[in-house]
User: Which sequence fits this backbone?
């Protein structure tokens, strides 16, 4: 008796399209043998557990013919046909890929839906953790990638490497805060003194301030990278730095840091004034000599780093104050009553760094922990949120203080209130949730937008600026230098009479 099957793809290589009944029975008969084989295998395992010896597997347990093995597991003709077709397709794939017999697939690959439950839970946790990452792309890493593609010992490699050592994004922020503070000093215009009869600020001094501050920031950042390359290699955000990848030698990076520091301090000394030069040198010493090694000792390093960030606005204010100072010594430029505005701007930058850094560091807290950096984000997460909230609230009295001491108009307190409320709201959420459920990301981006908005509003609402614009539009006569002095004397007399 011969049984015909409409589909016989498995036998087409041999030009066969029929299977005789005895052969079919012979194929399907050993099903009971497989049961006996499984039973003997279990018996071997049980015996091994009693005797303490490993079970001995015989070669007959493994069939070299996957097609025949699948045929033996079923006795139904329909299942037999589908099994033969499936086995032939797998055999064709293995033959096409030329895989060795030990690695040939006998089952289709597992789809994501067939993953085990704990695998799905792990993937979900990783996905939720990835959603809390708030760090933008690192500009230093981008420059390092550009430098690595350039020929060695070439200018095309040297320039990106030096820019990467200086941390361009951080250096630009430092320079902008110094320039904003310089422009907020209470004088009408940024013009040469010879071009106007009113008190003004020199753009040449601004040029030296910008150049010197940039070089000082680059020097401090390069010294920072020189101190911690072996720990930078442990963190994903810093492992692509030029010293870690060996794109520049330690000697070359040290030479760049020293020359940049000397150039910056010299430019500030001769182009601005000695007090600003001292503040620039102090910033390099605090950042490279105190903050950087303190990161592995105590969480106080965050407060030291905030002081470093608050010095550039004070440098800009002192640079402007030195142009109208009587003696020009450090006491007059730093401790005079007319310079309270500079200290308020420094306090604003000091406070801003806490909500910004606390939210930024939270997303890489495990990397900080593994690298040995003492940060509140993993040492004390609850305090990390409290500190961010505490310094976010401080912006309200700072903005009011800028109005009170005549740096800005009183309208600045109203104009800056919405962005301050936004920052405090995100800080409260970050504190309650301790960084989870997207609260760290919300606070980070609120801090990113908060600083430029507040600084721009302060410059727009600068004291007396809109009165001068009004006089220029309406054609009213402007006060010359003598009139400014007379007004100051009249104000002094009136205040003395009131006392």
Assistant:
């Amino acid at each position: 008796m011969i049984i015909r099957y409409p589909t016989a793809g498995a036998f087409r290589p041999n030009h066969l399209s029929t299977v005789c009944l005895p052969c079919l029975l012979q194929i399907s008969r050993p099903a009971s043998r497989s049961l006996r084989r499984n039973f003997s295998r279990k018996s071997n395992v049980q015996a091994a557990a009693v005797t303490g010896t490993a079970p001995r597997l015989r070669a007959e347990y493994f069939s070299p013919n996957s097609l025949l093995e699948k045929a033996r597991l079923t006795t139904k003709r329909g299942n037999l046909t589908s099994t033969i077709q499936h086995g032939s397709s797998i055999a064709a794939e293995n033959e096409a890929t030329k895989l060795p017999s030990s690695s040939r697939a006998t089952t289709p690959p597992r789809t994501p839906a067939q993953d085990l439950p704990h695998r799905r839970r792990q993937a979900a946790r990783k996905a939720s953790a990835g959603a809390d990452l708030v760090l933008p792309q690192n500009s230093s890493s981008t420059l390092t990638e550009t430098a690595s593609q350039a020929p060695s010992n070439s200018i095309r490699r040297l320039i990106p490497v030096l820019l990467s050592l200086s941390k361009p994004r951080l250096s630009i922020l430092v320079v902008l805060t110094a320039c904003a503070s310089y422009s907020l000093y209470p004088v009408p215009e940024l013009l040469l003194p010879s071009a106007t009869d009113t008190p003004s600020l020199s753009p040449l001094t601004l040029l030296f301030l910008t150049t010197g501050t940039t070089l000082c920031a680059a020097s401090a950042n390069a010294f920072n990278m020189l101190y911690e390359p072996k720990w930078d290699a442990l963190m994903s955000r810093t492992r692509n730095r030029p010293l870690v990848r060996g794109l520049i030698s330690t000697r070359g990076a040290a030479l760049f840091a020293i020359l940049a520091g000397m150039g910056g301090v010299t430019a500030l000394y001769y182009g601005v004034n000695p007090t600003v030069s001292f503040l620039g040198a102090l910033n390099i010493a605090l950042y490279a000599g105190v903050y950087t090694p303190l990161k592995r000792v105590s969480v106080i390093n965050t407060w030291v780093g905030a002081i470093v960030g608050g010095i550039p606005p004070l440098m800009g204010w002192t640079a402007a104050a030195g142009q109208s100072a009587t003696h020009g010594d450090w006491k007059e430029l730093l401790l005079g009553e007319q310079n309270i505005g500079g200290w308020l701007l420094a306090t604003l930058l000091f406070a801003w760094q806490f909500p910004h850094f606390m939210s930024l560091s939270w997303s890489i807290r495990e990397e900080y922990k593994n690298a040995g950096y003492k940060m509140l984000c993993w040492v004390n997460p609850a305090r990390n949120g409290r500190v961010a909230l505490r310094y976010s609230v401080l912006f309200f009295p700072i903005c009011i203080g800028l109005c009170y001491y005549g740096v800005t108009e009183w309208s600045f307190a109203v104009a800056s209130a919405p962005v301050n409320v936004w920052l405090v709201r995100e800080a409260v959420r970050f504190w309650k949730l301790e960084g989870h459920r997207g609260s760290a990301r919300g606070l980070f981006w609120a801090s990113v937008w908060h600083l430029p908005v507040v600084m721009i509003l302060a410059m727009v609402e600068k004291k007396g600026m809109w009165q001068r614009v009004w006089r220029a539009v309406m054609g009213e006569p402007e006060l010359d230098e003598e009139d400014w002095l007379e007004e100051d004397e009249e104000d002094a007399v009136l205040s003395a009479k009131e006392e």
Summary: The first helix runs from residue 21 to 28.
